[in-house]
Amino acid sequence: MDKRRDLKIIFHGDGIWTQSGYAVELDFLIRRFLLEGFQVAQAAKAGLHGHWIDYRMDEGTLRMYPMVDDPHGADTMFYGARNFGANVCISMIDQWVIPPQWIQNLHQIGCKFIPYMPVDSNPPAPGILRNLPLADKIITFSKFGQNQLKKHGFISEMIYEGVDVNKLKPKDKLEAKQKAGFPPHLFMWGMIAANKENPPRKSFQEALEAFKMFSDVHPESGLFIGTQQISPGSFPIREYAQHLGILDKMFFGDQLFMSILATREDIEIWMNAFDGLLHPSQTEGFGLTIVEAQACGTPAVVTNAHSMPELIIEGKTGEIAQVANRKWTSALSFWETPEPKSIWWAMEKIYRRVKEKPNEVLIDCRNNVVENFNIDTIFRERWLPLAEQIQDEMLPAS
Amino acid sequence: MEKLVKKKPLAILVTGIGPIYLDYSKKMIASLLKTNPKIETKADIVLMTDKEFNEMGGTSAEMAYMTPWFAKKLLQDYECVVRIDSDAIITGDISSCWEGDFDVAVVQNANSREIQSQIQTMNRVVSVWDIKALEEYVNCGFVVMKSEEFVDHWLKLCTPERRQVYQFYEQDFLNILCYYGNYKVKFLDKQPNNKWWGLVAKGYYSEAILKDKKLILPKNSGSEHDPWPTDNDKEIVCIHFAGGNQPGKFDRLDNMFQPDVLKYLKFLINS
Fold first, then answer.
1. Residue B182 is part of a domain; what is its CATH number?
2. Inter-chain contact A155–B257, Cβ cutoff 8 Å?
3. CA–CA distance from B211 to each of A195, A223, B208, B223 (Å)?
């Protein structure tokens, strides 16, 4: 290879096989940087314990460091960077979890710190701004985030998260429904989301209420909910569905399967099996499933808040539910609770469009992702030039 | 006995003590000369480095109150001394700062966003006595002095014993004299010319724009929760980084300024 590849990069975040949204994105980036010939390591916030490993993949070998003491791997970020001799650390995590001294430690060993970070509230929670004066460069996921940071004193680059459009693409819907175990005649809505608190950030209550209204009008419909992350005190989805009298229309992913066994192939099946995705979240730094659904030709319902509206083309690839009220949280920012009737109305509009023009919807959804969220394009046009620029600044050619 | 030699009109006092601040001071002076091209016809730019400090008998004690200490000496030869911290970039015409009849001219230390930052990082706000942190407390990074009496008084307050009591020391005493001394004080950021002179704009630089070769912070920059400034557009004539004795204050400008402003600032600080 004739291109100079002296830069050593350590990525900080969820271990690449852990299947969280961040893990998926880090996996995309790490494999592509390896393929380009860069030396890459990961400080794995989750997914690895006890000892470092050299993880061999088709694209190259990834040095991975396990968590040490800090629950979010901030110490691993430093120890890993030091051991690996990293020039730059790219941290894809909520920035409020990183104690600033670990960033200062990185600087002490000459390693630059670049957060690739979500901004998921208006105003941004103070905690996420705390570390930014220490950042050598700031990268956000969304125009919303970039704009919020600008209003709060920080200039950032915006690089969307992306999906692999060659692996995640439209398939035969009936076949996908069959694989997912959905009756083929049902108009299927789907939610794949974390359920870690109550009230739930992902608006399970509002989504269920909206689906109740929808299914009253369209009895031949179903709702699948898969929660890959759960915590004690999470929203009791089944019980609320029973309370609303819609439990017989609900489909649930097996919790063990959803939490630790599901793969990218399963995501592709579900996203193809859904007729519409429900993603009326109350706070969102990006919303990867919105893009994953569209990659498979499936439109999405989102909330009129944060990054979500910019991921769809309203009236073509999705619909926007309006916010009913704003809740001030202990993170010192707002959650934007969507109006169930507005979610329902958005579902109705998608239902009509899918029924009337299924191919047009599929093509619009697919084109939106191929044009704006294709990870190969994003990597080639944004990440690679950025890495080469940092390399030229830090390690000029002799 | 009356001094026979007529004083020179103006000195710009810059300190570059230690290699880091010497580097800062060179950048600051470069920006001063580019934005005020005729300043050397009006003023002497006096750079005090370790060499001058040592030759003048400075010790570690005087390090803590260099502004009045150097100013005392310069006011023997100059009518007016403008002290500008070296961790600053001059971005506009500063000639209005020495105009008018006053003993001392000072700049604001904070805005509401900076106050929040102080609470987060220090669990307190920077102030002294009952001087209001937001509206009143002034910063020591840009001070214009015309009165020897004022500087003598300031120096008199800077005793080793008081250092244990007043965390911000010379800056605290500057504030006490401005609000409780019997002196004519000019508050530079509150003049009708709509110029801002330093920390009053801190935290809002990301929305500064270049307009007719001036650095402007438009009215109601910031978010809907903390818009600033609220009355008029402001011309930023000085960007003061402040924040204590740290290296690399000029290293992360691209996280703070829009690209065209960044390019302009890099042009200004390059010698």
1. 3.90.550.10
2. yes
3. 49, 55, 10, 21
Top-tier CATH class for A173-372: alpha beta
The Cβ of residue A58 has, within 10 Å, a number of other Cβ atoms equal to 7
- CB atoms closer than 10 angstroms to residue A126: 16
Residues in chain B: 271
The answer, for A358 touching chain B at a CB cutoff of 8 Å, is: no
Question: Is B74 within the bounds of a domain?
Answer: yes
pLDDT digits (tens, 9 = 90+) for B61-114: 999 999 999 999 999 999 999 999 999 999 999 999 999 999 999 999 999 999
Residue of B61, B152, B66 lying closest to B104 (CA atoms): B152
Which residues in B lie closer than 8 A to residue A149 (C-beta atoms)?
206
Q: What average pLDDT does range A216-245 have in this prediction?
A: 93
Chain A touched by B256 (CB under 8 Å) = yes
**Nearest Cα residue in chain A from B119:** A126
CATH superfamily of the domain spanning A8-162+374-393: Glycogen Phosphorylase B; (3.40.50.2000)
Contact assignment for A155 to B223 by CB distance below 8 Å: no
Domain contains B90: yes
The residues spanned by each domain of chain A are 8-162+374-393, 173-372
From the list B203, B223, B255, which residue is nearest A135 (CB)?
Answer: B255
Q: How far is B188 from chain A (nearest CA, A)?
A: 23
CA dist B32 and B15 (Å) reads: 14
B270: in domain? no
Using a CB–CB cutoff of 8 Å, tell me whether B258 touches chain A.
Answer: yes
Tokens of A83: 């051991």
Count of CB atoms situated within 10 Å of the CB of A92: 23
Provide the number of structural domains found in chain B. Answer: 1
Residue type present at position A125: A
B132 Cβ partners below 8 Å, 6+ apart?
Answer: none
Instruction: Tell me the two tokens of residue A104.
Output: 């200062």
| Mean pLDDT to the nearest integer, B191-198 | 97
User: Is residue B26 a part of any domain in this protein?
Assistant: yes
Confidence (pLDDT) at B3: 57
The arithmetic mean of pLDDT across residues B26-46, rounded, is 98
Asked if B120 and A136 come within 8 Å (Cβ–Cβ), the reply is no
CB atoms within 10 A of CB A3: 10
Does the distance separating the beta carbons of A153 and B256 come in below 8 Å? yes
Is B123 in the A-facing interface, judged by CB distances under 8 Å?
A: no
What residues make up the domain containing B61? Answer: 8-192
pTM above 0.95, yes or no: no
CA distance B258 to chain A (A): 7
Chain A residues close to B254, C-beta within 8 Å: 137, 155
Which residues of B are less than 8 Å from A115 in CB distance? none
**Residue B92 touches partner A, C-beta closer than 8 Å:** no
Alpha carbons within 13 A on the beta-carbon side of B61? 8
| Residues forming beta bridges with residue A328, ordered by sequence position | A334
Residue-level pLDDT at A56: 97
**pLDDT above 70 (res B2):** no
